[in-house]
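Hey, sorry to bother you again with one of my protein questions. I've been staring at a protein lately and its backbone has me curious. I owe you a coffee for this, so here goes:
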Amino acid sequence: MHLKLLSCNVFQREASWCIARSPHVIDPEYTELGEHARSAGLRSLIQGKIDATEASGQSYDAILLLFGLCGNATADLQARKTRLVIPRAHDCCTILLGSRAKYAEHFREAPSTPFSSAGYLERGSYFLRTTEDGQPGVQIGDAYQALVEKFGEEDAKYIWAEMHPDHGNNKAVFIDLPQTSHLGYAEKFAAKAAEAGKESIRLEGNIRLIEQLLRGDWNEKEYLVVPPAGTIEGVYDWDQVMRAKQP
């Protein structure tokens, strides 16, 4: 098959590893990690790349989306004449861990626990990814940086603390995949977490969801295949996560 991959660059190393081993011809294109701070903007960006792919004159067997629902960023995405394939994941944490079951095992009781990976340390100006929680002294990404730029550091800390109250979870998780563990990011993360007063937890990741996506092994329990002209619709449960909505 000839496949188009649209992916967040937080997966760039892992996707490259899998592309080299895939039996298919894959044309990758990446979005910047910082785009996740604006779900509507990310949705528009991905849709634009889907539209450009279909207008390019190149015929693809499918367009692969290496994203989760990501704060509704992938909801309502549509390709007019090509299948879309996306992992059934709420966000990249599930993808990095390799399954929804692993995500539920480690995050069901505290889904707002911040996490990181090699890609987060390489591609962002922060070491923790979080959308719900976080100590105001920890750099948590572009959403926090935007507050700093608008209100200044001290006011930004206060605003962030009010918007994201600390529920007593002082853990910070690093998802360490075997394919990138040699880079030493787990140790760097642990040091940064300690500086921020966080308890560093290392979880072993699994590349299987990325690998199977790029191999064309699209088990319907783990991947949503959206037919041409269909759209992605969020379900927001622990099992299905998303479904295809017919026109």
Notes: The CA atoms of residues 89 and 95 lie 7 Å apart. The first helix runs from residue 12 to 19. Residues 129-142, 162-168 have pLDDT under 50 and may be disordered. The longest strand covers residues 2-8.
